[in-house]
Specification:
The chain is an alpha+beta fold. The protein is about 40% helix and about 20% strand.
Length: about 450
């Protein structure tokens, strides 16, 4: 869900000549500065009809303002869809439809993101609308209030769903006292209800600047043409941003506890996991992807077979690692199961995890996944939207701008033995279990609560 901005930007002074990709690389990606000083990473896709820019602004303000956690979702949405200049929200939407263009803004925990795409011949017109939204947003109060209601209603609905309630509980338990915990559950509700148009505008003016901006261009535009459009679009943004340093995350120890949240759900949710340090990009991301695919990545994964095929206790089961901040994340296995099969399904998941951590993966399991990764990656880099997004994602995770040139090498270099060593080193040796079920009877609970607000009572060592 969230990307960590750890890459070091190039100096912001005079224009820097781009660093061209060498002939030994797969993709002609270059990095440098526009005449206006904005960092531009460029890939030319001559045969593409659509052009795409993927933007990232360094943005760690949310870590310093947990009482304004709702801004994480509300601020970029209001700037993007509230209207621009002389156009109200409806007129802006119609203009974009007429030219076949698109743009959006969003925020993560360490960066704000933007995407803009359109057919080549309409791309400049789309950028003019984006520029207007960034420089002259309408920010209507009625739209903000509507989005606040939508966000709060969604929060309420999620707490009534077993799976999302279990995920929120696990994330809160393993995020600890870090200010980002407020972005998980939007608690108290004032983190959303108190947000004003002035808060949104203050975020826009503090973060959307030139000094903290990286633009990735993918499509038929030459580097020179893309550079001109970038300076025309973003050149009047403030030169300097008002971002602050991030707040270090202290990993929360995983408590080997079973917590049951009693709720009248039609189907129970099981979530078992713990803290983990395992990045999602580059060679680390490949090893993580291969390991999680084997354990819980689809109908042939070990968890699916153990819980669905052998027990018939659920429609399926899955495993993955979700990020908290940087390389810190949460490993989890989850399944939605029949209420009368929770205990047996949990036992099966625990046994499968213990075997997985002890003996790891086999070459027969990872080789087909590696082949699919290798065959699919070049196609992703041939499409403008996915190529710009992949390059931006790599940069935000601290990798070189030309990381896609190394991706297939990273994939092919992985072996079962190497992944198994990482499994033993990185996966938690004990698991916290969160179960949402109508009753805790027979589940071996260490702590039973009725509401998520009671979770802290379960977290004492």
């Amino acid at each position: 869900m969230f990307l960590s901005l750890t890459a070091t930007a190039l100096p912001a002074h005079a224009q820097q000549a781009p660093t061209a990709a060498t002939s030994a690389r797969s993709f002609a990606i270059s990095d440098g500065r526009t005449p206006g000083g904005i960092r531009l990473v460029h890939i030319l896709l001559k045969d593409e009809k659509d052009q795409s820019f993927s933007m990232a602004w360094r943005d760690r303000l949310i870590q310093h303002t947990p009482d304004k956690a709702g801004l994480l979702q509300l601020a970029p949405a209001l700037v993007a869809v509230g209207g621009a200049g002389a156009l109200d929200a409806g007129a802006l939407e119609e203009e974009l439809k007429d030219i076949g263009g698109y743009f959006s803004l969003s925020r993560g925990r360490t960066a704000a993101f933007g995407d803009v795409a359109a057919p080549r011949e309409q791309f400049e017109a789309t950028l003019k609308l984006l520029r207007s939204a960034l420089m002259e947003p309408r920010l209507p109060t009625i739209t903000l209030e509507r989005r606040k209601r939508f966000l709060l209603n969604g929060r309420k609905a999620n707490r009534e769903k077993a799976e999302s309630l279990a995920r929120e509980a696990m994330t809160l338990a393993l995020t600890g006292d870090h200010p980002l915990a407020a972005t998980v559950g939007l608690t108290p509700l004032s983190t959303v209800s108190s947000i004003t148009v002035a808060d949104v505008d203050a975020w826009r003016k503090s973060i959307l600047a030139r000094s903290n901006l990286t633009v990735v261009s993918a499509g038929p535009l030459t580097r020179e043409a893309a550079s001109d459009l970038i300076d025309n679009t973003f050149g009047d943004l403030p030169e300097k941003d008002a971002d602050k340093d991030g707040i270090a995350f202290q990993r929360v120890p995983t408590l080997a506890k079973t917590i049951v949240i009693e709720s009248p759900v039609a189907q129970s949710a099981i979530l078992a996991g713990g803290s983990v340090l395992w990045g999602g990009s580059g060679a680390e991301g490949v090893s993580r992807g291969l390991a999680m695919s084997v354990l819980g990545g689809g109908a042939r994964s070990r968890l699916f077979i153990a819980v669905r095929e052998k027990l018939g206790a659920a429609y399926g089961a899955s495993a993955g690692i979700s990020p908290i901040l940087g390389r810190d994340g949460i490993f989890s296995m989850e399944a939605a199961v029949a209420n009368d099969k929770v205990a047996v399904a949990l036992a099966a998941m625990r046994a499968e995890y213990a075997l997985f951590r002890e003996k790891g993966v086999t070459a027969d399991e990872i080789d087909p996944i590696k082949r699919r990764m290798v065959s699919g990656f070049p196609e992703s880099m041939r499409r403008s939207g996915s190529a710009s997004g992949l390059i931006r994602g790599a940069i935000q995770n601290g990798l070189p701008f030309d990381a896609p040139d190394r991706q297939i090498g990273w994939i092919n270099a992985h072996t079962a033995d190497g992944i198994n060593a990482m499994l033993r080193e990185r996966l938690p040796d004990k698991l916290m279990v969160v179960i949402v079920a109508p009753s805790a009877e027979g589940l071996g609970a260490d702590c039973v609560i009725k509401q998520l607000d009671e979770l802290k009572t379960c977290l004492a060592p």
